[in-house]
C-alpha cells in the first residue's frame, strides 16, 4: 500500500440504555439523550468540514443508530455505511485492522465503535498514552498513515 495520507474519524457510540436495559448488550438502543448527542456529534463533524467516504460501524444497535444519524446529517447515502461484525466490542488492534482494509477503497473513513477499543485506538493513532477515554458520542479526527 502506498504512503498517501488518509484520515480517520473515530466516534464512540452515543449514550445507550444502561444499566436498566433488559436484553442482550448487542441490542441496547440509544437513549433520548444519546439520540441528541449523536445529532450534536454529527453536526460537529459536518461543521468541521469532514466528509468521510465510508462509515464503518459495529452492527450493535447503538453503534448503528449513531452511524445512521451521522450519515443522515452529512447527507451520505445508506450505502456509505458498512456494518462489520468484527467491530462489536473490538480491541484497538481489530479496529485498526478494519480501518486498514477500508483505506484500500476510501481516503477518509469514519469508524463508530465501543470503548475501551475506540479510546485505545485513539491513543495509538495520536501516539498519546494520556489521551482521555472517549465519553459517549465523543469523536476525534486524525491523520492516518498507511505504510
What is the radius of gyration? 14 Å
Q: What strand order characterises the main sheet? A: 3-2-4-1-5
Q: Structural class, judged by helices and strands?
A: alpha/beta
Distance between the termini: 6 Å
CATH architecture: 3-Layer(aba) Sandwich
How would you describe the overall organization of this protein?
- This protein is an alpha/beta fold and 147 residues long.
- The chain contains 4 helices and 5 strands; from the N terminus they run E-H-E-H-E-H-E-H-E.
- The chain has a single domain, classed as Phosphoglycerate mutase-like (Rossmann fold).
- The protein is 34% helix and 19% strand.
- A 5-stranded mixed beta sheet has the order 3-2-4-1-5, sandwiched between helices.
- It is globular.
- The model has no long low-confidence stretch (mean pLDDT 95).
SSE topology sketch:
Layout: E1 5-12, H1 32-47, E2 54-57, H2 61-73, E3 81-83, H3 92-102, E4 108-113, H4 117-126, E5 139-145
Helix pairs in contact: 1-2, 3-4
Short key terms for the protein model shown above:
147 residues, Rossmann fold, 4 helices, five-stranded mixed β-sheet
Characterize this entry briefly:
This protein is of the alpha/beta class and 147 residues long.
Amino acid at each position: 500500500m502506498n504512503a498517501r495520507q488518509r484520515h480517520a474519524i473515530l466516534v464512540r457510540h452515543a449514550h445507550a440504555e444502561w444499566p436498566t436495559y433488559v436484553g442482550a448488550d448487542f441490542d441496547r438502543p440509544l437513549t433520548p439523550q444519546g439520540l441528541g448527542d449523536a445529532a450534536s456529534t454529527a453536526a460537529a463533524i459536518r461543521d468541521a468540514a469532514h466528509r468521510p467516504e465510508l462509515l464503518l460501524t459495529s452492527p450493535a444497535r447503538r453503534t448503528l443508530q449513531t452511524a445512521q444519524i451521522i450519515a443522515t446529517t452529512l447527507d451520505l447515502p445508506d450505502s456509505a455505511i458498512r456494518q462489520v461484525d468484527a467491530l462489536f466490542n473490538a480491541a484497538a488492534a481489530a479496529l485498526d485492522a478494519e480501518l486498514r482494509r477500508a483505506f484500500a477503497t476510501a481516503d477518509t473513513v469514519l469508524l463508530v465503535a465501543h470503548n475501551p477499543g475506540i479510546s485505545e485506538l485513539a491513543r495509538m493513532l495520536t501516539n498519546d498514552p494520556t489521551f482521555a477515554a472517549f465519553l459517549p458520542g465523543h469523536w476525534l479526527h486524525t491523520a492516518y498513515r498507511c505504510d
